[in-house]
Amino acid sequence: MKKLHLLITTAIAASMWSCDSAEPTVASDDQGAVKLAATIESRSQDGVSPNELAATCRISIINSQGIIRQYKGVSQIDEPLWLACGEYQAMAIAGDSVSASWDARFYKGSTPFSITKGELTNVGITCTLANVIASVGYDTQVKDALNDYKIRIGHSRGWLEFEGDEERQGYFMMPSGVTELQWTLTATTFDGKPFTKSGKISEVKPATEYRVKIKYTGTASPIGGALLDINVDADVEVIDHNESIDDIPVVTLADGDINAPVNITKGEGKRVVLTAFAPAGLSEATLTGDFDLLGLEETAFNLLALDENAVADLHSKGINVASATAEDGSASLAVNFSQKLIGLLPVNTYRYTLKVVDRNGFPAQGTLTITVTDPNS
User: Would residue 329 be called left, alpha or beta, if left means φ above 0 and alpha means ψ between -120 and 50 degrees?
Assistant: First the structure.
């Protein structure tokens, strides 16, 4: 195994709290500082590019309110991180998350930490391979019984097909709650009849390779299909890894930065969409904000339990809500502020906060800020 060390933040001098230090000082009595470092552990045969991983590494800092800091690329963090005292989790991911691929690898890791008043906390995050790996091996005598054999391995979101004696590895990202890889062998016998056999690999784990071994247990015969036995080898290659963590929910602004205001010139029509995505599904979704400025009496809406009146009230002001749950249990939600609504807003600043909680209890929230200015001012 090779280790790729990625320095996430610049060093913070130990003397930063000295009265004579020229380093930045604590902004308030309730803050401390954190220095993060990430290590991405990749297998030598993965063939990943260190530069690519560094460029695609995404770092998040999370507390009970959800994601409070996000960065993309190691180079994006170039100064100390000052945080309020409390409990946090640092999460880093790198690579590409693809359902089934021959070459896409995905790495992730997380570390909980605490911020203490006036202290520097060093936090290391180890990102390990999150993919489940599968490969195929054949007895040399399989050719005595079958022709044109191939195996498909995968799950509901993606499949890979191994042709003949192909021995390369396939990489899979498992849908939330799914722990089985399905496989199907298809071939023809020497008398031209189709042969099919299927099975599953249960309780698969990240960073573990499962090798399907095709074993021939007889002598060549025109009815060769009855002479084959297929086993999943109990001896699997295990790569050291941390316990898998579920991806956390996120709240984002479609085609924009949730942390930056949407600046509108009065009369300008522009559609704005606030979105949420939860890989583990949603248990709560609440929208609060300046609804009084739109002529509504409500101050908050439970988006997962909107009654007809609430839907009608929001729709009358040009706000539409849509949600969907995928087969893998992940959930998405969109709050659409229509182009017509935005175009009619008077000069003012409007704020709307979407807070969600997934089925694992992880929260996330984001605040949409719309600033409408007078073009003549």
Answer: left
Residue given tokens 């552990």 in the structure block: 41
Spatial CB neighbours of 324, under 8 Å, sequence gap ≥ 6: 331, 332, 333
CA 121/CA 119 separation, integer angstroms: 6
Lowest mean pLDDT among 74-78, 336-340, 362-366: 74-78
Task: Compute CA 260 distance to the chain's CA centroid, rounded to the nearest angstrom.
Answer: 22
pTM, two decimals, is 0.54
Per-residue b/e over 287-299, b at no fewer than 16 CB within 10 Å?
bbbebeebebeee
Structural domain that includes position 186: 132-238
82 and 193 inside one domain: no
- The region, left, alpha or beta by phi > 0 then psi within -120 to 50, assigned to residue 275 is beta
- Name beta bridge partners: 39: 5, 126
Query: How many domains are contained in the chain?
Result: 3
Q: What is the pLDDT of residues 115-170, one digit of tens each?
A: 888 888 877 777 788 889 998 887 777 776 778 888 999 998 899 999 887 878 89
pLDDT for residue 222: 46
For 181-203, the DSSP string reads: EEEEEEEEETTS-EEEEEEEE-S
Whole-number pLDDT of residue 50: 54
- Could you tell me which residues come within 8 angstroms of residue 34 by beta carbon, excluding any fewer than 6 positions away? 9, 61, 80, 81, 83, 88, 90, 113, 115, 120, 121, 122, 123
Instruction: Measure the CA–CA gap between 12 and 144, rounded to whole angstroms.
Output: 67
3-state secondary structure of 67: strand
Phi, psi torsion values for 338, nearest 5 degrees: -65, 160
**Average of per-residue pLDDT values in the chain:** 76
Out of 111-115, 253-257, 348-352, 371-375, which region has the weakest mean confidence (pLDDT)?
A: 253-257
Element (H, E) at 312: helix 308-316
Q: Using an 8 Å Cβ cutoff, are 212 and 153 in contact? A: yes
Same domain, yes or no, for 299 and 218? Answer: no
Last residue of a domain, one of 217, 238, 259: 238
- What tens digit of pLDDT does each residue of 203-253 get? 888 888 888 887 766 544 444 444 444 433 323 334 433 334 446 788 888
